[in-house]
Amino acid sequence: MNVSPPRNRIAGWMFVLVSPLAFAQTAATDVPLQIPGSYGQLARLVDIGHGRTLNLRCTGGGARTVMLEAGSHADSTTWFRLQPLLASFTRVCAYDRAGYGFSPAGPLPRNLQADVADLHALIGRARISKPLVLVGHSLGGNIVRRYAEKYPADVAGLVLIDPPAQDVAAFSPGWAKAEAEMNSGRFAFIRQCEAAAEKGELPSQRADLKDCIAQSIPFAGARVQAALNAYKAKPAFWRTLLSELQDNVGVFTQPVPPIEQHGSMPLLVLTASDTYADAPADIRPALEQAREKTQSQITASSTRGERWHVDRSTHDIQLDQPAEVAKAVAKVLQESGHAAQAD
Predict the structure, then answer these.
(1) For range 49-69, the mean pLDDT
(2) CA dihedral 239, 241, 244, 247 (to 10 degrees)
(3) Phi and psi angles of residue 268, each rounded to the nearest 5 degrees, phi first
């Protein structure tokens, strides 16, 4: 059994004492309705080695740190409602993965291995205290799970926001085939946008290019929208996006690996009520079954795995019900504090 240093023992004991206050503090914290203007500029560029940097946003304070990992082709703006809630009772950091937001592009391919390596370098170079609680939304859940497998000593607990269904073909071969065909169209569109970006043609009103960059971004004011549009007008964004989505095909067409185990690490899976609300009625049950199997397997990968169902929420629980995510994080922090005290 690992023996925690005295400082970690004290930190864990202190957190157990103060954690019940987290819920009251969260309730008293205003949730932004619009992405704050501060997201329209970089926060802190961290040198992660090999001439590369990543943009890191940290707020709050406390003995433990929570690291937020965004979903596919998302940047740190996805956390604008959740981060202030967490900052009311702990230190919390979000970052832009390579090629997104204010983080320069990284070497291709942009796959799980590359994302885990970047996250590890970021945590080390930014001197973020460990062990941390990792929070992953959608694809971000796959990244933090892989990280926890590779660097278990770095991780105190996991909160996974609506992990996507894997191995859908086992439940609906027809839907999986249609999805593969749609991917061909998506990839062709991304290559078209990349070519336009290479020529400096984005954003554009041309019929074949106007959908490359949204004319109006939800929750974004003029300053933030201008910043988001600026990085999406660069070829590097489209190369990053294509590589990530191509890797997603391999990740999500496979079932959860049976060898994935997280020991007794606190692990909480949040399941959204309305993830498939817009799916065709005849295919929705199969998608629900695939997600049920996926999330059940993930939950069972830890002896302290648990699931919460979140009502009135789409797949983006961190935007629809941020207080529920904050409660989940507070619970995992408390459980990991108990574990530190026990060690």
Answers:
(1) 97
(2) -80
(3) -125, 125
